[in-house]
Amino acid sequence: MVIAAISSGALILDIIVIVLLLVWLGSYLWGRWRRNHYATVIDEEAFQKGIHKAQVIDLRPKNQFDRGHILGARSMPLAFLLQQYDDLRPDLPVYLYDEGMTLSTQAAAFLGKHGFDNLYILQGGYSKWTGKTKKAKYSD
Predict the structure, then answer these.
(1) CB 99 within 8 A of CB 76
(2) Sign, Cα dihedral of 120, 126, 129, 131
(3) Which of 31-35, 99-103, 125-129 is the least confident region?
(4) Choice between 83 and 32, residue whose per-residue pLDDT is larger
(5) How far is the C-alpha of 120 from the C-alpha of 125, rounded, in Å?
(6) Distance between CA 128 and CA 116 in Å, rounded?
(7) Do the beta carbons of residue 125 and residue 44 sit within 8 Å?
(8) 127, 136, 90: which is closest to 111 by C-alpha?
(9) CB 54 within 8 A of CB 120
(10) Helix, strand, or coil here: 12?
(11) Residue 96: pLDDT above 80?
(12) Is pTM beyond 0.70 here?
């Protein structure tokens, strides 16, 4: 009887672990699909080539932007972008980046639903950037 209780407890634990893994995998695949559906993920070289003809948006919080950002980028944290997206021109390419690619994916999906077609996300985000950067004069 004790063995049956232990094995049923282990079975329940196995089921919980499998469900959690499936939820995580589903979330990952959903995010990847959204990113690829609304935007094109480009490497640093392609990002640098197109940077002068695009609206470059840093989606990180302002304090992170001030500590260092891609030269020519405009600070527009995600919450601000969701409210002020009409400040962007839909006829020009929009280059998005954040620390990784999570916020960029959310921003691309939002902008894509609001008529923006030329959306690009920096592969790996700012954490992988090796190009020119700028820091705010009075950052913390």
Answers:
(1) no
(2) positive
(3) 31-35
(4) 83
(5) 11
(6) 26
(7) no
(8) 90
(9) yes
(10) helix
(11) yes
(12) yes
- Among residues 99, 118, 116, 108, the alpha carbon closest in space to that of 32 is found at 108
User: Which DSSP symbol is given to 129?
Assistant: -
- For 51-100, give the secondary structure using H, E and C: HHHCEEEECCCHHHHHHCEECCCEECCHHHHHHHHHHCCCCCCEEEECCC
- Identify residue 82 by its one-letter amino acid code: L
**For 17-61, how does the pLDDT look when each residue is reduced to its tens digit (9 = 90+)?**
999 999 999 888 887 787 778 999 999 999 999 999 999 999 999
Distance between CA 107 and CA 15 in Å, rounded?
35
- Cβ atoms of 73 and 58 closer than 8 Å: yes
Asked if residues 129 and 44 have their Cβ atoms less than 8 Å apart, the reply is yes
Phi-psi region of 68 (alpha: psi -120 to 50; beta: other; left: phi over 0): left
Residue 61 sits at the vertex; the CA angle it makes with 56 and 47, to the nearest 5 degrees, is 25
